Amino acid sequence: MSEHFSYNNPEEFENKNLPKRVQEWEEKIQDNQEGYIDIVTVEEIFEYYLNKNDLLKAEALILYALKSHPYNGSLHFKQAAIDLEKGKMETALLHITQATSLQPLQTDYLQLKADIYAAMGKYEEALEILQDAMAYAQNLTDIYLQMGAIAQDAGLFAESEQFLRKSLNEDPQNEEAIYELAILFEGQQRLEECMKLYEDFLDEKPYSEIIWYQLGIIYQKINDYDKAIDAFEFSIAIQDTFMPAYFQKALVQMEKEDFESAIQTFMFVLAADKNDKMTLFHVAECYEEREMYKEALHYYLKAIRLDNTFVDAYLGAGYCLENMDEYLEASSYFAKVLDIETENVDAHLSLSICEYMLGNTHNAYWYLQQAIRINPNNIELWKQWADLLHENQNLEGAITFLEEGIKVNSLAAELYYLCAGYMFEANKNNRALIMLENALLLDKKGWDNFQIQFPTYASLQTAQKLFLYYSR
After folding, report:
1. Which of 163, 260, 374, 421 has the fewest CB atoms within 10 Å, measured from its CB?
2. 244 burial class (0-12, 13-18, 19+ CB within 10 angstroms)?
3. Choices 1.50.10.10, 3.40.1180.10, 1.25.40.10, 3.40.50.720: CATH for 275-375
4. Do 178 and 168 meet the contact criterion of CB atoms below 8 Å apart?
5. pLDDT averaged over consecutive 10-residue blocks of the chain (472 residues)?
6. How far apart (Å, rounded) are the C-alpha atoms in residues 214 and 200?
7. Is the Cβ–Cβ distance between 342 and 312 less than 8 Å?
């Protein structure tokens, strides 16, 4: 047995809903009765608790049964699996060692023992155990698969690939082996091989929603958004309740800037789980991108109600209010961010902007200095504050601020281009040409944005001459 148990916080079950033997067992425990319990009953009750995801009661049952059957390998095996799931490695190792000494030819016991050693970081020992298990295993597919996963955890990527390929040789249509090998390729940025692996599998078994989903992820990574969406839609067509495919499809639609479609797709996820904070957050982002700030704020606040430490949601709510000219209310959300993350540069910058718009110049510059202190290399910080000064008719202040930014970020062509534009606007043409020349030296591609932002100054003969000279 190599899988781990999973469980939630157990709830008490009403006796009338319990199978008869489970009810009798729980009554015995409640009355603190000691006594014998037969193995058949243990197996029945154990399976019941696993189906209910109640690992605590399952463990209590096994420990009770071990008093009656201290030399039963299956009970020690089950307890070892529970201990592994709970992170109790030493006791897990004791129980699995006892199990393998009682039944040394049980391959599932050896596989669990390998998992325990791997969880302890003893990868070499784990692989040796599995190598020994091959002598008794009737099916090598799972053994090779497990060896591949353990080798990958150990950073032995070449060995991992060999094991996984051997697993596929045993069973070419093993979905888990395909997935593990693809994950290995993905981690090594071998995306073309990863894609081919998935596509070849789907040629033979086209009805796997998981593989279509994983293929969509790869298409998304190589920015082939249309194929990514197609893959996610195939996944959804096979299993229309597979929410990860809806969620990922919506993210791709966001990357395509099709925000209206993204909202519609996210709504399928919310229909399944209205309290999914990340989906609520992304819906808010979509509305914000569409400049529908009231709607965006509504969803940001829903996300915050679910998680009152959700920094990005507080920032999003603040940005919406800022764009609605509600600077005082926006400030309260940015301030909340600083309660959670005192060194958050975005919150400091946003507070500086809000304070400036509220006329609190002293506070504005204090927050600005904090933002610069935290991350002086944040180019957007320098650009946004310069734009703010410019929009508020403080052209000289914007130029001076950009010059300070250039001292700190001497290779940031964007700052040179912006400063050149403002210098032209201030009729400082000679200084502007020097600044523009430096910008072109650093990144001549930035000229396209300069033309868009400052078309009048970009069309000046002197500026055109500079561009032609440096674009040769």
Report:
1. 260
2. middle
3. 1.25.40.10
4. yes
5. 44 51 77 79 88 88 91 94 94 95 93 96 96 89 95 94 93 88 90 92 91 95 96 96 97 98 97 96 98 98 98 98 97 97 96 95 93 94 93 94 96 97 96 96 95 95 93 82
6. 13
7. no
Residue for token pair 């008869």: 20
Residue type, 45: I
CATH for the 1-138 domain, from 1.25.40.10, 3.40.50.970, 2.160.20.10, 1.10.150.450: 1.25.40.10
CA angle 337, 340, 341 (to 5 degrees): 80
Question: 113, 97 in Cβ contact below 8 A?
Answer: yes
Q: Secondary structure of 26-55 in the HEC alphabet?
A: HHHHHCCCCCCCCHHHHHHHHHHHHHCCCH
Closest among 248, 164, 173, 172 to 207, alpha carbons compared: 173
- Which string of DSSP letters, residue by residue, matches 122-187? -HHHHHHHHHHHTTT-S-HHHHHHHHHHHHHHTT-HHHHHHHHHHHHHH-TT-HHHHHHHHHHHHH
List, in sequence order, the alpha helices (H) in 273-307: 277-289, 293-306
Phi, psi (degrees; rounded to nearest 5) at 121: 85, 10
Q: Token pair of 272, please?
A: 């399944």
Q: Contact, 150 vs 126, CB < 8 A?
A: yes
Q: Quick check: 358 and 327 in contact, CB under 8 A?
A: yes
